[in-house]
Write a structure and sequence with these properties.
Number of domains: 2
Bound molecules: glycylglycylglycine
Structural class: alpha/beta
CATH superfamily of the largest domain: Isopropylmalate Dehydrogenase
CATH class of the largest domain: Alpha Beta
Radius of gyration: 20 Å
Shape: globular
CATH architecture of the largest domain: 3-Layer(aba) Sandwich
Order of helices and strands: EHEHHEHEEEEHEHEHEHEEHHH
Helix content: 40-55%
Number of strands: 12
Largest sheet: 10 strands, mixed
Length: 347
């Protein structure tokens, strides 16, 4: 029987609740599809940091390298570990070390889910650059704690990094409605974002069949609210992509529905799948976290592993459940009930 080795990093807060739910669903889909998912749990998290002084062990990346994929829940417990420490200690090193440069985030309304907009027919695929830009961590502080303190955070954009994410976006657009929106703020940021715009225009010449529109981040943020149906594939830098995809999550009904994949397309190392949401300490372990974003991320993982029909079955099961109104009442529907309903459709 074909078997895939999966590294499970539930992380913190509701990350643990939704990863457990997604794993049950993925196991059921695997059983039905005639393949195996062999999971190994890693306790890397803020709790692990408190015990060891690090978010993961020094050989953590090497340990993950032998897996076919990583399923991650959420990272962060700000009451005990600063978010900047937990993020730069676990999630970001995995994305960067495995060169998972394409962060794919689909935004569409699941049937039965009430979004906040009049428009309901949108289907947007946000592609966030995931390894450089505003997230490089380059910078520093001097004169700390004095009135003359200075903080510098340097965004780094490379030709290789910008070109590959745009090509990835154009290729995705070719499989969809053949429209690509490239996002910058090149009127204000006259070095890096003009560079991005120039590379976009050059790469677009290789994709004459894809309609390109170049937006400023503020304009596309408004468009995602006012005319979301007009957008297809959206490619943005690391920070802009992060912000736009929280907006994307909002228009699809909330973070409980926002799935994501961190992809290294060359497949020589594992890609990572995670819900967009964070650890939500306020609702951790209350049994009310929506597992749909994590389950959908798991379906994206199955797709990446080549288990296409199992991925489609999981998506159909999610849709069958939301159509019946299950998983559409934030704060009321129980994690266990939503998971059980998805499992019942799959069985
Ligand atoms: N699901 C993983 C998680 O904890 N995400 C929350 C978060 O803040 N991620 C940072 C980022 O994607 O930039």
């Amino acid at each position: 029987m074909k078997s895939h080795k999966i590294a499970l990093i539930p992380g913190d807060g509701i990350g643990k609740n939704v990863t457990e739910a997604a794993w049950q669903v993925l196991q059921a889909a695997a059983k039905k599809g005639g393949f195996a998912l062999e999971g190994t749990n890693f306790p890397w998290s803020c709790a692990y940091y408190r015990e060891t002084g690090a978010m993961m062990p020094p050989d953590g990346i090497e340990t993950l390298r032998s897996f076919d994929a990583i399923l991650l829940g959420a990272v962060g417990w700000p009451a005990e570990v600063p978010d900047s420490v937990s993020l730069h200690g676990l999630l970001l090193p995995i994305r960067k070390q495995f060169m998972q440069y394409a962060n794919i985030r689909p935004h569409r309304l699941l049937p039965g889910v009430q979004g906040p907009l009049r428009s309901e027919g949108f289907d947007i695929l946000c592609i966030r650059e995931n390894t450089e830009g505003e997230y490089t961590g380059a910078g520093g502080r001097v004169h700390s704690g004095t009135g003359n303190e200075v903080a510098v955070e340097t965004s780094i954009f490379t030709r290789v990094g910008v070109e590959r994410i745009l090509r990835y976006g154009f290729e995705q657009a070719r499989t969809r409605r053949k429209k690509l929106a490239s996002v910058t703020k090149s009127n204000a940021q006259k070095h890096s974002m003009v560079f991005w715009d120039e590379i976009t225009s050059a790469v677009a010449k290789d994709y004459p069949d894809v309609e390109l529109t170049q937006y400023h981040i503020d304009a596309i943020a408004a468009r995602m609210v006012m005319e979301p149906d007009s957008l297809d594939v959206v490619v943005a830098s690391n920070l802009f992509g992060d912000i736009l995809t929280d907006l994307g999550a909002a228009i699809q009904g909330g973070l409980g529905y926002a799935a994501s994949a961190n992809i290294n397309p060359d497949r020589s190392v594992p890609s990572m799948f995670e819900p967009v949401h964070g650890s939500a300490p306020d609702i951790a372990n209350l049994g009310i976290a929506n597992p749909i974003a994590a389950i959908w991320s798991g379906a994206m993982m199955l797709e990446h592993l080549g288990e296409r029909s199992a991925a489609a079955e999981v998506m159909s099961a999610i849709e069958a459940v939301t159509t019946r109104g299950i998983g559409t009442n934030p704060g009321q529907d129980r994690t266990e009930a939503i998971t059980g309903a998805v499992l019942a459709v799959l069985s």
